[in-house]
Amino acid sequence: MTDQLHPMTPHHMPFYMVKPGETDVLMIVMGIFLILALLGVGNIYLRLHSLPERMAHKSQKMQFEIVAVLGLLALFTHIHLFWIAALLLALVDLPDFGTPMRSIAESVEKIAGAQTTDAGRGARELKPSQAAMTPEKTEPSVPKKEIHSHA
């Protein structure tokens, strides 16, 4: 190959023009920059998208699961209202009604000495210390009355 330019080529060529057979360094640099920019913007997008989940992670389990589902719906449906709802739900602390109610139920069971079944846990077993405290179900002993016949 010859390094001669075509007769119609201008004499002053820009710096980014390469001669035939040489490596185009600018194209390689721009390709690497484009890949890094795409990965960086994608990473920022996904971190911003998971913001409500990270905020709700320290809250109650039920609230965290709802926020996570709303985040997934927003990701796959591209309906941004789901993401806004997840963000608002993550910001609001919902009152915990489950723990006090569970505590009351367990206390009532302890007072009654009953063995009940919890949903999903099966029959609860009493600990040895609780078994000693549980009254045995025996028939009360009634003193027998002596029957005197007046015949």
Describe this structure in words.
Helices cover 54% and strands 3% of the residues. The protein is mostly helical and 151 residues long. The chain has a domain at 25-91. A two-stranded antiparallel sheet has the order 1-2. The longest helix is centred in the N-terminal third of the chain and has 25 residues, at 25-49. The model has no long low-confidence stretch (mean pLDDT 78).
Shape: rod-shaped
Q: If you average the pLDDT, what whole number results? A: 78
Number of helices: 6
Major sheet characteristics:
2 strands, antiparallel
- Helix content estimate: 40-55%
- Give the SSE string: HHHHHEEH
Question: What is the number of strand segments?
Answer: 2
Portion of residues in beta strands equals under 5%
Gap from first CA to last CA: 146 Å
Model regions low in confidence, pLDDT < 50 over at least 5 residues: none
Strand order of the largest sheet: 1-2
Radius of gyration over C-alpha positions, nearest whole angstrom: 39 Å
Class from helix and strand fractions: mainly alpha
